[in-house]
Amino acid sequence: MANHIRRGLLVSRAWIQAVVLVVLFGFLVLGLLAWQTYTGEPPIPARTVDYSGKILFTRDDVLAGQGVFLRNGLMQYGSIFGHGAYLGPDFTADYLHRAALIALDAYGGATSSRARLATIEDFKTNRYNPATGTLTYSPGQTRAFDQLRAEYAKFFGEPTTKFGLRPNAITDPEQILQLTAFFSWSAWTATAVRPGKNYSYTNNWPPEPLVGNQVTADAIVWSVLSLIALLGGIGLLLAAFGRWNFLGWHGRDRQTVSFRTPDQVTLTPAQRACAWFFFVMAALFLVQTFVGGASQHYRADLGSFFGIDLGRLFPYNVARTWHVQLAIFWVSTSYLAAGIFLVPMIARAEPRGQHWLAYGLLGALAVVVVGSLIGEYAGIQGWLRSVWMWFGNQGFEYLDLGRFWQILLTVGLAAWVAILFRGMRRRLDTEHFGNLPWLFFFSALSIPAFYAVGLLAHPGSHFTTTDFWRFWVVHLWVEDFLELFTTIMVAYIFVLLGVVDERVALTVVYLDMLLYSAGGVIGSMHHVYFSGEPAQHMALGAFFSAAEVIPLTFLTVEAWSFLQLGARQEGKSATAFPHFWAVMFLASVGFWNFLGAGIFGFLINLPVISYYEIGTALTANHGHAAMMGVYGMLAVGLALFCIRYLIPEAHWPERAAKISFWCLNLGLAWMVFATLFPLGILQLYHSVGVGYYDARSLKFIGNPQNSMLEWLRFPGDVVFIVGGVMPLLYMCWLGVRYQMRPRTQPAQPPELLFTDIIAEAERR
């Protein structure tokens, strides 16, 4: 084998050492928290009995009830421990509130102070005996279990669609008992005092005065410390960047870039194959918006979809399952295609047959998408019985797809990494492991690795444990490693465009890795404050998630400097910059990153706020602004960058790109500021003033005031879909239409594919 001379590291080794130390520290802490999750999770009693010793339900009933909850898609209807969808109730809070009312009535009613004290004593006293595995319910709790079992049978056996579920969703008496047992156990963990502490297994969540649940000292103190960490961290970072010019964006000011027209750039067969990826991406995006519109309409008018009883064909939990899954699918499709598209530019060559592998990957992706969506529909409709977990829906929010499809998707992502490695292998042999080509590969490798962690979330395991691993996918996979890959990809694009020096781009990448890892790894625990985890998860999750906002602030400031540099460079170039709208989408990512992920995310991550708002419209507000605003806009920007080279210059639809940009951003802003944010504030206010249970009830969600706010979102959705998504679909179709047409193109220079760089001295 030939010896290759590797290019040296372009930056100081101190950057690598710092990143490695921070990442290792973060995962060491996460490892300790994983151990505490297994040792500190709320017990599931082997049997729960009344005072006479009669068995009410068993551990098997609780776990079977969890299975009933998941396979019927109820986590995409309501929630448990605050996590799930936002139409139906939180079933932990729902059971707890109604059980407390039943017990209170049994002891003398709300007017009796003795009855109120007896109710609190009933629910707060931990009667679990770990030696025998037996939990003993008080007479009030027993009475509540029997009555609520009948109430849930009536609710889930409703023969109409008035609750947004399919008719007669769950009618089997045994399944109703199991489901009630699951809800009852979750309510018990929310009130029974954790041994050795003065608060419950869920840190006294949900807030429920009838049982004495109130915000804990940990939630208040760590909220205050999170604010201090945020303000102090931002101050120190801005002071450091004011004192030292770490990045040196001005380095290109002394050079002039001359942008080449897209028609002058030769594309490889694999790059042309990416046209189909982007067309599929845009089609999935369009379907996702229609499904999202249908799910949102349930909140505006639960009983009718413009006169159609939609719930019989497409109940809310199916609509929301598809909406969430399609968001992941279409964004991921864009990232996969952009990675394949960039590899020949990074490697300056493409191995033979690479395009056939790309087409094979697209076919496999289509099988997973179509198969999982059909399986989710069939599973929720009750058509799959013993195989629901494998081929139907596992029922976890963001991990709804069956395990068979989940494994296939993991294998597909690993195959994508193999395709990238095959295309980059020769280039990697000549580069230091710390330079951009290797970072690009390592970040791509992390995507299937951390998605595979989701396989540890099993529908038959303890809910607290499964939620811990589920959020490794929701947070670490999506918000950290997927973001790292896209950061490196965007940095490489700017290098290839000649706008940013490679050394500067590499410094930015290491800085981002350092800042994101410092807060993002341990900060992922902000999702599990109230899922039955020990209080240490809240303390560390709150403190470190505050640090996640710091790099977002920094990147917003630096993005403005970069855009100013780009404007100056375009003014010096003899040819127009061909990627104006792609860069505009990247600029909008900075805005939504700061607003959606930073401000809206930090708002709900404070424990004292999350205690009252988790599972409300403020959570949806953060989710839409961050998911679409950051990952969605970035996916569209990457697509426009690539298809700009697939469509001949004479046929490039500049007007469609402009309309798509403004309509997607204005439609998202309308969605956020006209509906989700004000609705979330009203729901938070109602939760604090009246009660969390009531704020999550269908009665409150469907009241005239909230319904009006939901209808106000309609014009923004129309702008978003018609003006934003459809022009994007049209542009991607043009990419497919013209990708096979031959064009006469000159040979490429060996270094830069998109620009010529002329130093200041040469121009003189």
Mean pLDDT over the residues: 88
Strand content: under 5%
How would a crystallographer describe the biggest sheet? 4 strands, mixed
What's the gyration radius in Å? Answer: 27 Å
Strand line-up of the largest beta sheet: 2-1-6-5
Explained architecture:
- The protein has 764 residues and is mainly alpha-helical.
- Helices cover 67% and strands 4% of the residues.
- The chain has a four-stranded mixed sheet with strand order 2-1-6-5. A two-stranded antiparallel sheet has the order 3-4.
- A hairpin with a 5-residue loop joins strand 1 and strand 2.
- Helix 15 packs antiparallel against helix 16.
- The longest helix has 36 residues.
Layout of helices and strands:
Elements: H1 13-40, E1 47-49, E2 55-58, H2 59-71, E3 79-80, E4 83-84, H3 91-106, H4 113-124, E5 128-129, E6 134-136, H5 139-156, H6 173-191, H7 217-243, E7 255-259, H8 269-300, H9 316-347, H10 354-380, H11 388-391, E8 393-396, E9 399-401, H12 403-429, H13 436-451, H14 463-496, H15 502-523, H16 535-547, H17 549-572, H18 580-605, H19 607-613, H20 617-646, H21 654-689, H22 692-695, H23 698-701, H24 704-712, H25 714-738, E10 755-759, H26 760-763
Parallel strand pairs: 1-6
Antiparallel strand pairs: 1-2, 3-4, 5-6, 7-10, 8-9
